[in-house]
From TrEMBL:
Protein's name in the database: Lipoprotein
UniProt keyword annotations, A-Z: Signal
Signal sequence, renumbered to the chain: 1-18
Species whose genome carries this gene: Luteibacter yeojuensis
Length: 119
C-alpha cells in the first residue's frame, strides 16, 4: 500500500510540474522589417534581431502570459517578456499576429510579428 501512495504522490508532483511550464512561443518578424526571432520555452528564451549592420541577441529572463485559452490553444491577449537588460516587451496577440505595444522601438526591434512553426 505504501508503494502505491509513494508512486501516486510522485506522479502527482510530476504532473503538476509538467502542467506549470510556461508557454512555448516562436514568433518572427514580418517583411519588410529586418530579420528577427523570439523563442520562449517555459519561463525563459532568447530574442535575436538585426539593426543596421549588427546582429543582436538578448536573453529573455521572465515571461508573463495573459492570453486566454481557446480550444486548448492560446488566443488573444498579451505576453510580457523581460529581457536581460531590464527592458520589457509587451506583445499583444491578435490571431496569429503579435503587435509590439511597448519596448520594441527602444531596442530597434520590429513592431509586427507572426507566429512561426515550432521545431
Amino acid at each position: 500500500m505504501k508503494v502505491w501512495v509513494v508512486l501516486g504522490a510522485g506522479a502527482f508532483v510530476w504532473l503538476a510540474s509538467a502542467c506549470s511550464r510556461g508557454p512555448e512561443i516562436h514568433i518572427t518578424s514580418q517583411p519588410p522589417a529586418a530579420a528577427a526571432d523570439i523563442r520562449v520555452e517555459g519561463d525563459s528564451g532568447s530574442a535575436t534581431w538585426t539593426w543596421g549592420h549588427g546582429d543582436l541577441k538578448e536573453k529573455i529572463i521572465a515571461v508573463a502570459d495573459s492570453r486566454s485559452k481557446r480550444g486548448g490553444h492560446p488566443a488573444d491577449g498579451d505576453i510580457r517578456l523581460t529581457l536581460e537588460d531590464g527592458t520589457v516587451l509587451r506583445l499583444a496577440q491578435q490571431r496569429s499576429f503579435f503587435i509590439c505595444q511597448a519596448g520594441c522601438e527602444k531596442k530597434h526591434m520590429p513592431i509586427t510579428w507572426v507566429s512561426a512553426a515550432y521545431e
